[in-house]
Amino acid sequence: KVLQKGNAAGCPEEAAVCSVEGNTKKNLGKFLSPPKKVGENIQLLYSDGDVCSSTRTIQTVVTLVCRQGDLESAPVLKHMENDGCGYEFEWHTAAACVLSKTEG
């Protein structure tokens, strides 16, 4: 269950990603698939959000990029499809960094 505090209060309960504009809340996707390693990054895919066209629902990709020591940054919107059905965010955070690496 996603915690709904502050401006996120009132977002759809099943939304893992929620857009808040004034009093309008939009479900940008649910957590339905596990994280995936893409190169050195971690990619999170959230799908089955609000209906955005006659045949599609909103899907959001969040790419976590390692930034040592950074636990305070926020995700940055990198791209939004013209029809509002797809969003891409990049989040530079220490949470994406390898904690230790063993070779041998």
Relevant terms:
104 residues; mainly beta; seven-stranded mixed sheet; 42% strand
Could you explain how this protein is built, in words?
- This protein has strands spanning 17-21, 24-31, 36-38, 41-47, 59-66, 76-80, 86-93.
- 0% of the residues lie in helices and 42% in strands.
- The termini are far apart.
- Strands 1, 2, 3, 4, 5, 6 and 7 form a 7-stranded mixed β-sheet that branches.
- With 104 residues, the protein is an all-beta fold.
- The model has no long low-confidence stretch (mean pLDDT 89).
- It is globular, with a radius of gyration of 15 Å.
- The protein is built from no helices and 7 strands.
Which helices and strands appear, and what pairs or packs with what?
Elements: E1 17-21, E2 24-31, E3 36-38, E4 41-47, E5 59-66, E6 76-80, E7 86-93
